[in-house]
Structure formats: C-alpha cells, structure tokens
Design a protein that fits this description.
Elements (H helix, E strand, L loop, with lengths): L12 H22 L6 H24 L10 H29 L10 H29 L9 H26 L5 H14 L12 H7 L3 H13 L9 H23 L4
Helix pairs in contact: 1-4, 2-3, 2-4, 3-4, 3-5, 3-6, 3-8, 4-5, 5-8, 5-9
C-alpha cells in the first residue's frame, strides 16, 4: 500500500448507530400507521377521527335526553374537557401494549429491539392524540363553541399529564402482556370501568363525600378535574398534583424496570 494512500473515510460509529436507530423507528412508525384500519394510511385517520365521533355521540345523547352541562355553557365542551384527557390515557396505554404484540415478530431482525417497538408506538400515539385534540377544537369552533380555556397553561399541562400517565401504564402493560398475553383483553375491562367511573360525563365532586373520596384515588378523575379547572377556575375541586405526578413517574419507572428485566428476558 503506498505511503500516501488514505484509508476510506467512514462515519463515526455513534453517528452510524443513530442513523440506523432513527431509520428503524421511522419504519416501525410507518408500519404502525399502515397496519391500522384497512392497511392504508387513510385507515389511520379513523384513529384520529374517533375522539370527534365519540364526542358527537355523547353530546347527541345528552341533547336527546335534554341534559344540561353542570358547568360551562356547552354540553359538548363539558364532555370534551373530560373525554379528551381520559381517552388520551386510555388509547396510549392500550395501543402501546398492542404495538408490542403486533411488532414482536420483527424483533427477530437484529436491528429491531423490543424496546424500539414500544418507543415507535408511543410516538405514533402521542402524535395521534394531539391531532385528535386539534381536530376536536376545530370542530367545536365550527359549531360556534370557543374551545380556548381561561388558563391555557393549566389545560396543556393537564393533557400532557394524561399522555405521560398513558405512556407509563403502557410500559407496565407491555411487561404484563409479555408474560400473560391474555392481559390485552383483560385490560379493556379495566380501562372501561375506570373511564365510566372517572367523571367524564358528570362532576365527580358532586358525588357524596364517601364516594368522592374513593374516586380521587383514580388518577383519571384527577386529570379530568385538572383540565376542567383550566375552563372553570372557580370549580370547587382540589387536584392532588403530588399524587398524580407520583403515579406518572412511578408507573414509568416500574414499566421501564419490567421492560429491562422481564420483556428482554422473553425469547
């Protein structure tokens, strides 16, 4: 080899690893979007449109029965302030688990790790949640309803807390379903019960104190009250922010530990 010959230039190892990792994540995310309803990107819109459909059905039932919102001037806005954070938690915590199960065969490829499948589904669900939120706000505006809260910061942080709780519980679900696959069906019953009793369609604070004290242990109830405080600052509720953040970071810590010592140990 001549003295003045130079070895071929190569990119640093770290940069190459990051490039591969980002390509794997993007491929998993695109596969997630295509593998939804109908196997096309158009089917992914069903995931985004569902919060609007959900809101329309509940608001229509309230109008049919002549029910009025206990707070706020619009039944649609009242339901939205409860349903959106609850659905964000429910969808993310469930879909993260489903994403792991759907993408598990891909982990036989050396470039795809089990943790990558979970991260990819988390990113897709976060984007879907915020797209659904923006679409609901747009629909409310079209019907002449102002969706902007009195305290925008409180509303945003409350919704972000719902997303964070969904991610933490989603990681726990991945750890459980890696050992007990039947948990994917059992969790539907758990989330449905928590959703119906969390105060989406009513004010939990109007319940008797004996019942309300137990409902406060449900973090979804506290998240709903958090968001509604942004629209009605005089609402007679107190959110236990320390408890909510404790549940969020506690679930995320437990979920990551389960991913490290349980999920990766599965063959």
């Amino acid at each position: 080899m001549p003295v003045d010959a130079q070895p071929p230039t190569t990119r640093p190892f770290a940069q190459s690893y990051i490039d591969v990792y980002l390509r794997v994540l993007s491929a998993l995310m695109l596969r997630d979007m295509r593998s939804r309803f109908g196997g096309t990107y158009w089917g992914y819109l069903v995931q985004v449109l569902w919060p609007c459909v959900h809101l329309g059905i509940i608001t229509g039932l309230m109008a049919f029965r002549g029910m009025k919102a206990p707070i706020l001037d619009s039944p649609a806005l009242f339901v939205a302030t409860g349903a959106l954070p609850a659905l964000a938690f429910q969808y993310i915590s469930r879909e993260v688990m489903k994403g792991y199960m759907v993408h598990k065969p891909l982990t036989y490829f050396p470039q795809v790790k089990k943790f990558d499948t979970v991260v990819a589904r988390c990113l897709v669900e976060i984007v879907s949640s915020f797209m659904g939120l923006m679409l609901v706000c747009f629909v409310l505006l079209c019907f002449g309803i102002d969706p902007v809260p009195q305290n925008l910061f409180v509303a945003i942080t409350g919704y972000l807390a719902a997303v964070g709780l969904g991610i933490g519980v989603g990681f726990i679900n991945v750890g459980i379903v890696s050992v007990f696959p039947g948990w994917s069906l059992g969790y539907i019953l758990v989330t449905l019960t928590a959703y119906l009793t969390s105060g989406v369609y009513f004010l939990a604070s109007y319940m008797p104190n004996e019942i309300y004290s137990y409902m406060k242990w449900n973090p979804i109830t506290q998240l709903i009250e958090w968001v509604r405080l942004a629209y009605e600052p005089t609402l007679a509720v107190e959110v236990d922010y320390l408890y909510v953040f404790g549940v969020i970071f506690g679930s995320l810590t437990i979920g990551l530990l389960m991913e490290r010592y349980i999920v990766r140990a599965q063959q």
